[in-house]
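Whiteboard transcription, Tuesday session. T.W. wrote the C-alpha cells on the left side:
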C-alpha cells in the first residue's frame, strides 16, 4: 500500500509541475557517462589547475634593537593593509607605588590631542586617508597602541603612533572627559548582566592579594579624582621609556619599519622629559590564594519586562604557569579541552559542544546556566579558572561539580584532547521574584 501511494504521489507531482512550469521541468536528462565518478576527469576537458599553498612556506619574524633600546619586530605577509603598534611593558600591575587606575586613564586618553594633532578628530581624519583605524588596549602587564592602515601609509602611521605615545598633550578638558568615561564604565561594569569582567577582577584579587596582577585593572571610584596630569606624567616618565617598548608590525617589510622607527622614535624627546626612569616596580607575582564575595541587587537593571534571573556566579581558580615556561602550551591545550560556555550556546566545530565542561557538566545538569574555562598567563605566573552559574539553592552542588572537574584534569584526556588540539592549531593559524545575583571567586 505504501509503495502504491508514493508512486501515485510522484505521478501527481510530475503532472502538477508540468502544468505549472512546462515540459522543461519534467524532462528526464541523461548523461553520456552515467556511471562516471565525480572525481574522475571527463574526456576532452582540460586538466584543471588548482591553487596550492607551499607547506614549507614560513613567515619569519625579524627583530632589531635600536640604539636607544627600542625593539622593532615585524612579520611580512601578503596584503594591501598592515597593522602596526607600540607595545609598552606597562599596566595595572605596575601601579604599586601609584594610585590604581592610571593605566585605565591612559587607555581612555589614547589618541587624543598631541603635539602635531589638535584633536582626536584630526587623528581619525588623517587615518581615514589611508583607510586606517586606531585602538588602545591595556591589560595587567601591557599597554598597546595599534593602527591598521594601508601599507603605503606606513610613514604616517608610525609618525602618528610616536606622537600619540610620546607627545600627548593631556589637556585638562581631556582628563575631565576621561573621568566621566571612567565613571560611566565603572557604573556599567557593576550593572551589566554578564558578570565575567567583574569575576575576572575578583579572581585576580583573591589569588594575588594586594600585589602585581592582583591590583585592580579598572580605576577604583575613590581614585577617579586623584589622577591628574602631574601624576600621569610621573607615571609615564617611569614606564614609557624606549627600553620598555616594542614597535611591532605585520604585513610590512622589516627594513621599512626599522627606517620609520629611526625617523620617528629614535631621538624623540617625550613631553615628560627624558630623565632616567625611576620608581619602576619589578615585583614578582606572589600567589596567595583567598576568597572574595559580593552580593549585588539586580532588580532594577533589567533591559525589559522580564526580570534578570537570580543566579549565583562562582569562579574557582588554580595557579598555572607563566607564558615563558614550557608548560604554557599544555595549559593552553587543557583550557581548550575544558572549554564550556553558556547553556544556550550554539553548537558546531570549535564552539565547545564536545568539551569536558559541556559533556560532563552542562549536558548532565540541566540547572547549570554556565560553565566556562579561562586561562590567564603572565610573565611570572598564571591562573586556570572555571566560571559557573546556577540557582542560589544549588551553590554547594555546583561547587562540588566544578571541583570534581579540576580533580579529573589529572586523569586521561580521551577524545576531548584531539578536539582541543584541533582548536588550538586553528587559533595559532580564535528564585526569580527577586532578581539579584551573587558573585564568589576563589583562588585556592
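and on the right, the sequence the group agreed on:
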Amino acid at each position: 500500500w505504501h509503495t502504491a501511494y508514493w508512486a501515485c504521489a510522484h505521478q501527481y507531482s510530475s503532472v502538477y509541475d508540468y502544468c505549472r512550469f512546462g515540459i522543461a521541468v519534467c524532462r528526464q536528462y541523461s548523461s553520456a557517462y552515467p556511471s562516471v565518478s565525480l572525481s574522475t576527469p571527463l574526456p576532452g576537458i582540460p586538466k584543471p589547475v588548482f591553487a596550492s599553498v607551499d607547506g614549507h612556506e614560513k613567515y619569519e619574524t625579524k627583530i632589531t634593537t635600536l640604539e636607544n633600546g627600542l625593539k622593532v619586530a615585524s612579520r611580512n605577509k601578503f596584503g594591501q593593509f598592515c597593522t602596526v603598534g607600540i607595545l609598552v611593558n606597562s599596566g595595572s600591575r605596575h601601579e604599586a607605588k601609584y594610585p590604581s587606575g592610571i593605566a585605565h586613564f591612559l587607555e581612555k586618553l589614547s589618541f587624543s590631542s598631541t603635539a602635531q594633532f589638535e584633536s582626536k578628530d584630526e587623528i581619525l581624519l588623517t587615518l581615514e586617508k589611508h583607510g586606517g583605524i586606531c585602538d588602545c588596549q591595556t591589560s595587567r602587564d601591557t599597554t598597546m597602541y595599534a593602527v591598521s592602515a594601508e601599507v603605503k601609509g606606513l610613514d604616517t602611521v608610525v609618525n602618528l603612533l610616536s606622537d600619540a605615545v610620546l607627545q600627548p598633550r593631556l589637556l585638562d578638558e581631556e582628563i575631565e572627559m576621561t573621568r566621566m568615561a571612567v565613571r560611566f564604565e565603572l557604573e556599567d561594569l557593576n550593572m551589566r548582566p554578564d558578570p565575567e569582567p567583574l569575576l575576572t577582577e575578583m579572581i585576580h584579587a583573591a589569588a594575588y592579594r594586594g600585589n602585581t596582577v592582583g591590583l585592580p585593572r579598572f580605576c577604583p571610584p575613590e581614585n577617579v579624582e586623584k589622577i591628574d596630569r602631574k601624576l600621569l606624567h610621573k607615571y609615564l616618565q617611569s614606564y614609557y621609556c624606549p627600553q620598555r617598548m616594542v614597535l611591532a608590525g605585520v604585513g610590512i617589510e622589516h627594513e621599512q619599519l626599522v627606517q620609520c622607527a629611526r625617523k620617528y622614535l629614535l631621538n624623540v624627546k617625550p613631553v615628560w622629559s627624558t630623565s632616567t626612569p625611576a620608581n619602576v616596580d619589578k615585583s614578582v607575582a606572589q600567589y596567595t590564594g583567598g576568597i572574595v564575595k559580593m552580593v549585588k541587587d539586580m532588580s532594577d537593571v533589567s533591559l525589559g519586562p522580564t526580570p534578570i534571573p537570580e543566579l549565583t556566579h562562582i569562579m574557582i581558580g588554580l595557579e598555572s604557569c607563566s607564558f615563558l615556561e614550557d608548560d604554557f602550551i599544555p595549559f593552553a591545550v587543557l583550557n581548550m579541552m575544558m572549554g564550556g560556555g553558556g547553556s544556550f550556546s550554539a553548537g558546531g566545530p570549535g564552539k565547545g559542544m564536545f568539551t569536558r565542561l559541556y559533556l560532563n557538566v552542562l549536558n548532565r545538569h540541566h540547572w547549570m546556566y554556565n560553565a566556562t574555562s579561562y586561562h590567564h598567563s603572565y610573565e611570572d605566573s598564571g591562573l586556570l579558572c572555571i566560571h559557573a552559574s546556577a540557582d542560589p539553592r544549588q551553590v554547594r552542588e555546583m561547587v562540588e561539580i566544578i571541583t570534581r572537574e579540576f580533580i579529573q584534569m589529572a586523569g586521561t584526556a580521551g577524545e576531548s584532547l584531539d578536539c582541543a588540539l584541533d582548536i588550538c592549531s586553528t587559533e595559532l593559524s580564535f528564585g526569580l521574584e527577586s532578581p539579584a545575583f551573587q558573585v564568589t571567586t576563589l583562588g585556592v
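Someone added at the bottom: Residues 155 and 260 are 6 Å apart (CA to CA).
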